[in-house]
Write a structure and sequence with these properties.
Order of helices and strands: HHH
Helix content: 10-25%
Shape: flat
Largest sheet: none
Number of strands: 0
Oligomer: single chain
Structural class: mainly alpha
Length: 96
């Protein structure tokens, strides 16, 4: 009976397992699976087939690290990086 006591314990919520791959300065038409028949991108093609592709994604602040801060926090750049340029993400903000 004691051996089965662990089954009565409440399940611990685990954080989601997220892998976010961001390719700077790469247009979607440079990937074979997204329509470019002239080049071969087998690894990216597998990611497209098994993952999620955002075909209409827009950057509110099109600078590399600022865009990443917006993605990671879900906030506008001025909130995510209050000391831009040169600052870090506000540690009070939740991130992925």
């Amino acid at each position: 009976m004691l051996a089965l006591a662990f089954l009565l314990q409440p399940a611990v919520a685990r954080p989601p397992n997220i892998l976010l791959i961001v390719s700077d300065d790469q247009r979607p038409d440079t990937i074979h699976a997204l329509g470019n028949a002239l080049i071969e991108t087998p690894n990216l093609d597998r990611l497209v087939a098994r993952g999620t592709s955002f075909m209409r994604a827009y950057a509110g602040y099109p600078i590399c690290h600022v865009s990443r801060a917006q993605i990671l926090t879900g906030t506008h750049a001025l909130k995510a990086l209050p000391k831009y340029p040169g600052g870090a993400i506000d540690p009070k903000l939740a991130t992925l």
